[in-house]
Amino acid sequence: MAGKGPLSDQVGAWAEAAGVAGAFRFLGPVSTVPAHLAAADIFLLTSRWENLPISIVEAFHAGLPVVATDCGGVRELVDDSVGALVPVDDPEASAAVLMRLIDEPQLAARASAAAKARAREPRFI
């Protein structure tokens, strides 16, 4: 998790309590976003509201499948070809899509290729 928002400490505590903190990297604020995205396999955005998140465009440029909550401008960017939209406040839906992308590498590869192609669209250059 990159960044330091108002819920960062709470997310870390939840991960610790669930016994999964070791599966995550809590990076805090970062200045080299592309390098961190290049090291990732999937991009997850679980906002309750977003206008037009630049972070998703950055994930497209990195060729990452995107799993994001269906809110605000996110639905203008994400569809089934590049990943999936999931309901807001539904961690089970997010987890199901993440597990599908992990369990089906060919699906993740198709979403990755589609994300790279979307990044080349004129609106993102």
TrEMBL record:
Positions of the Glycosyl transferase family domain: 1-117
UniProt GO MF annotations: glycosyltransferase activity
A UniProt-annotated Pfam family: Glycos_transf_1
PANTHER family: GLYCOSYLTRANSFERASE (PTHR12526)
Protein name as annotated: Glycos_transf_1
